[in-house]
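Regression test case RT-17, inverse folding.

Input:
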């Protein structure tokens, strides 16, 4: 006879919440062809932190069963501050600015390990990594020096990249449209730029006081993609840093969403004659803004998404492994029946291929003189392949995982339903899964030109 449904058992016996089942340890899963022994040790150390400090609070990140907004916000701020204290946000900041100076491969291992607990938190940390990598790529050591005391200091700061606009996010990411559908405009005015327009969805965004608490010091500001001329083209777009308390910034209330419920506060942002000093334009050379957006914002953003999806899928398979070990189907543990074992094999295969591919690609990013620069179309094709494959893997793993667990997986207590709600946005943002496919094709034979396009 079947044992009774005991959802509690799924997250009782140890602090990980996986009932003890763990897939591969960092030493077994991270390929030494792409990283060093020391980098694996860093990942191991970080994994221990994630299991101790984050796993037990996953439900609280959404405010628990009652969706208590205060509990959610406090938990997010508190856990984010712990991550800052652990050095995660400054991991890739060069040591000369007070950072840890880790290589991009560690950035992605952090994304994977952190997403086992919560992909929203990984994304929050990722915003700092994004800003650092864009400023480094632009050669803006002056700006890094300006922000370093906040990025590398003891206090916790959050940051945001603003790309999407109401007329469509995927448009901005379509190279064939050459930014001509973008509306947020930065106009030169003496020693300043004046920014006007409307962004939609960037996160975390909102009034500065929403990002102040006993744990969080504040919002560092917005890295805003904007055009400088409506003619479009690579020379007429840039990235502009706007402080969080700049005059002329206005926000809607955060949107209610099916996932990333509180970790990401997503709002409308209105820019009304927002004046910033000229040095806050990140790109400094003709065409550099477009290269940064294509390569470091979209390209590396998709790569980070691939690593995060891999960690999320791994967490789901761990939950499923535990459940199918204990759940009896016609008197036998479920995972010992060949039908279900084959499904588990299929899930694992997708996860490990996602991991090996994003790691190989990150190793290529670290050797641009050999493989090409991130803004080049063939590299964008690879970033898109990594993100779309990991997205398909997460779709398969969450869906099949829930199928194996039955209603227990559908239950709040399993955590699986949250992973399922969370993974989806990674297939939508930064151009989405369709754009990924198009960018892979375009990487092979150059950007499409839409007949009669804008
Ligand atoms: C939780 C969350 C966090 C976010 N964080 C940020 C952030 O930090 N910064 C930011 O700027 N934005 C952010 N976004 C916005 C997100 O990036 C956009 O919603 C996304 O890029 C898609 O844009 P859209 O919603 O306007 O969809 P649309 O552009 O309208 O696209 C709709 C659908 O059509 C597909 N599509 C569109 N154009 C094409 C085409 N030419 N060919 C084939 N298919 C196409 C898309 O893939 C998508 O599936 C966030 C959104 C959410 C929900």
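Golden output:
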């Amino acid at each position: 006879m079947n044992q009774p449904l005991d959802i509690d058992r799924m997250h009782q016996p140890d602090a990980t919440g996986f009932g003890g089942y763990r897939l591969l340890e960092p030493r077994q899963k991270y390929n030494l062809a792409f990283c060093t022994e020391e980098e694996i040790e860093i990942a191991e150390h970080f994994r221990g932190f994630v299991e101790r400090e984050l796993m037990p609070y996953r439900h609280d990140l959404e405010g628990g069963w009652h969706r208590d907004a205060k509990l959610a916000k406090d938990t997010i701020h508190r856990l984010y501050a712990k991550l800052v204290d652990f050095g995660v946000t400054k991991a890739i900041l060069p040591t000369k600015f007070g950072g840890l100076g880790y290589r991009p491969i560690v950035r992605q291992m952090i994304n994977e390990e952190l997403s086992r607990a919560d992909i929203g938190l990984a994304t929050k940390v990722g915003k700092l990594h994004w800003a650092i990598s864009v400023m480094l790529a632009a050669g803006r050591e002056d700006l890094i020096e300006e922000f370093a005391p906040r990025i590398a200091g003891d206090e916790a700061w959050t940051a945001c990249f603003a790309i999407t606009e109401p007329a469509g996010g995927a448009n901005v990411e379509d190279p064939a449209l050459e930014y001509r559908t973008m509306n947020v405009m930065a106009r030169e005015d003496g020693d300043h730029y004046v920014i006007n327009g409307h962004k939609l969805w960037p996160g975390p965004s909102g009034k500065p006081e929403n990002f102040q608490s006993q744990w969080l010091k504040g919002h560092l500001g917005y890295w805003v993609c904007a055009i400088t001329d409506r003619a479009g083209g690579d020379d007429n777009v840039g990235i502009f840093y706007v402080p969080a308390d700049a005059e002329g910034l206005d926000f809607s209330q955060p949107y209610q969403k099916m996932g990333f419920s509180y970790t990401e506060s997503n709002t409308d942002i209105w820019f009304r004659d927002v004046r910033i000093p000229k040095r806050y334009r990140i790109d400094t050379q003709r065409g550099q803004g477009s290269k940064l957006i294509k390569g470091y914002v979209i390209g590396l953003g998709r790569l980070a998404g691939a690593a995060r999806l891999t960690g999320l899928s791994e967490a789901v398979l761990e939950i499923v492994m535990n459940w199918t070990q204990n759940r009896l189907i016609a008197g036998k543990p479920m995972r010992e029946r060949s039908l279900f074992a084959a499904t588990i094999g299929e899930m694992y295969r997708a996860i490990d291929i996602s991991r090996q591919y994003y790691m190989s690609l990150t190793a290529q990013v670290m050797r641009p003189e050999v493989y090409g620069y991130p803004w080049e179309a063939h590299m964008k094709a690879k970033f898109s392949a990594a993100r779309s494959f990991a997205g398909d893997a997460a779709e398969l793993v969450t869906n099949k995982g829930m199928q194996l667990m039955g209603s227990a997986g559908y239950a709040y207590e399993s955590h699986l339903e949250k992973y399922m709600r969370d993974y989806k946005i990674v297939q939508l943002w930064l151009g989405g899964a369709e754009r990924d496919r198009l960018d892979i094709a375009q990487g092979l034979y150059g950007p499409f030109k839409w007949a009669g396009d804008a």
